[in-house]
Amino acid sequence: MSSRTVIRGGLVITASDEIHADVLIEDGRVAALAATGTPAAEAFTAEHVVDASGKYVIPGGVDGHTHMEMPFGGTYAADTFETGTRAAAWGGTTTIVDFAIQSVGHSLREGLDAWHAKAEGNCAVDYGFHMIVSDVNAETLKEMDLLVEEGVTSFKQFMAYPGVFYSDDGQILRAMQRAADNGGLIMMHAENGIAIDVLVEQALARGERDPRFHGEVRKALLEAEATHRAIRLAQVAGAPLYVVHVSATEAVAELTRARDEGLPVFGETCPQYLFLSTDNLAEPDFEGAKYVCSTPLRPREHQAALWRGLRTNDLQVVSTDHCPFCFVGQKELGRGDFSKIPNGMPGVENRMDLLHQAVVEGRISRRRWIEIACATPARMFGLYPKKGTIAPGADADIVVYDPDAEQVVSAETHHMNVDYSAYEGKRITGRVETVLSRGEPVVTEREYTGRKGHGVYTPRSTCQYLN
Length: 467
Prior knowledge:
The chain is of the alpha/beta class. It is built from 14 helices and 19 strands. The protein starts with a strand and ends in a 19-residue tail after the last strand.
């Protein structure tokens, strides 16, 4: 039985176009678009009709950086694949790319299998995986080739977290050389973790224990230094590089310089760096712990460089780095010692709305909103045009978005499995109304109509900016 849906009367916005058009969906894919009111559009017939008059019709968001059920610092991220993907759908995101983790002494395959087991049958929307490489050796390098062949085409390394995920420059170079050969993309957490550990030890010795000191020891210059080093190592290896969660003016400058030199270097930032600052980390009564993540929030003046980078395309993607820990019982593990606060913040539900607010405020255009949140992450991680656009043949991952609805962000009303909102009380214009994932309604006029297990694993091709 074929199933057909028509979305009528909305303004269809992609990274490249805005057009008042009706969208015909058949068997989970976009079958056709036609300008509203034309004979071609009038000829669309379907069992289900969605009225999008006065609304935007946009591709479902692609969040290329999430951490569901991630182990960290003796606890686990509070969102499961079930709760996290449901929250993603509520926020207009229809694809996540999460991180499978290789533990030191274990194979990449073991890590990937473990993450498949967590996600399979539990997701409300589609998902893929990156691979965190914690233990570079001859076997790991061989496995990288196999993973690329089966659709896990990006590998994350850490210059931070010595003793946990940390790779030294030699290990990073070897992995980059392998990626240069097999078409994979190295994603880098660029902070000088060795130097940061010294500063942490010194701060604690001075009795500096509050959450705000997390931001003070993880210095912007150490993010910039690591970003520079990662770029040059990638250049030596002849490999592309994607720098995750860029937060500092100085790090943006390193990326800009590399791109001006014509290097295949890409950068991502996150809503927390665009909308929050060290003022939040300094909130009294340990409230600042809610905002502990790495790279850390920066002083407010860094935001201008991030917005400028997004406008000039020196930063290409906004992902969330969604890694939520509850304030009660999890963030509190670091009371009296900021270095023990689990690193991470919730955000998978807020990203599309926050970026629409940036459109309202004139920081970015509507098409740029879709580009940085949908199309570019889909291309970056080998999912386009299946994901990230509304075009014939694409998966019908579509959001009907009300640009005029007003909302106040709050933990009282969000769907993430975490006891606070990083954006509590923030007023936003714009809200998700209806969400389709492969043509199936997941959110219908602000009612959840999805189900766990609808979301399927999606293998990826290699980075589409390198072909």
